[in-house]
Amino acid sequence: MPIIINLDVMMAKRKISLNELSKQVGVTNVNLSILKNGKAKGVRFDTLEAICKALDCQPGDIIEYREE
């Protein structure tokens, strides 16, 4: 899939764990893990907004498009 999820990179840069991000965003660890591993079929804008707020980043820092 040409959509790359860089959530793990941003989490490492901000030194935040999956558990902590899950609490701040209000999404289960399992759902965040699915997103982090690129297995999600989609993400809601309100979830993306909460992730960006918690990580102090832009959506483009998390989601990237690469042609195959």
Automatic annotation (TrEMBL):
<dbReference type="InterPro" id="IPR010982">
    <property type="entry name" value="Lambda_DNA-bd_dom_sf"/>
</dbReference>
<dbReference type="Pfam" id="PF13443">
    <property type="entry name" value="HTH_26"/>
</dbReference>
<feature type="domain" description="HTH cro/C1-type">
    <location>
        <begin position="7"/>
        <end position="62"/>
    </location>
</feature>
<protein>
    <submittedName>
        <fullName>Helix-turn-helix transcriptional regulator</fullName>
    </submittedName>
</protein>
<dbReference type="InterPro" id="IPR001387">
    <property type="entry name" value="Cro/C1-type_HTH"/>
</dbReference>
